[in-house]
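Appendix B. One record, verbatim.
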Amino acid sequence: MSIFLSFLCLIIPIFIVSFSALSKKLQSSKWKLPPSPSSFPIIGNLHHLTNLPHRCIHKLCSQYGPVMILHLGSVPVVVVSSSEAAEEVLKTHDLECSTRSKMVGTEKLSYGYKDITFGPYGEYWREMRKVAVIELFSLKKVQSFRYIREEEVGLMVKKISESSTLTQSPVDLSKMFFSLTASIVCRVALGQNFHDCEFIDQEKIEELVSEAADALGDFTFTDLFPSGGFGRSIDWLFGKYCKQNRNREISSRLRL
């Protein structure tokens, strides 16, 4: 405990000085930055975000305008909340804003941002998109698997009908739609029926996909403090580092 307190006493003043220097640099910048709510050293505007962040951001936007800056830890985030500003970002300056934010969870699950979903915009991403459009999502390719989709949807409707007429038991639609999606993907990609395949554990696959979805939406201290090793140290203290390793395990199992 004494080591931890000594560590905090050493690291906190360093970050306060660094944050103050960065704030002065931004204020003296030649760029005209959007307005920003009052912030604290180190945490920035994190104290403005409570259990319902979307409502907090909406309230801040009504006060500071359709374009504002929030400092989530040491990471500046531009919040756009009007159609005119969204058009500027997504249409006029779409190339500058086309790359997704880098986060620990997405890095682990995308093998270092090498997939088409989270990869940075560039030549490599354009080539991946070209291959996906030609080999996976072309009209001819999509139509060739139409019978699979029709068969699986028919089976799902039949199951729902039997459940309502014969057993009159409640239907878990989330589980049903997951099974539908997994069945279609399994037949298209592997040529095997998801329910009859011997080497596929349905319960385990559903658990892994659910954990992967949670990992993609999970924030870590490293996401908020990406430089200097401060975020990683806090993640290690609060057990987030073990969860990051769990993301790597999920990624390897999904690949298998």
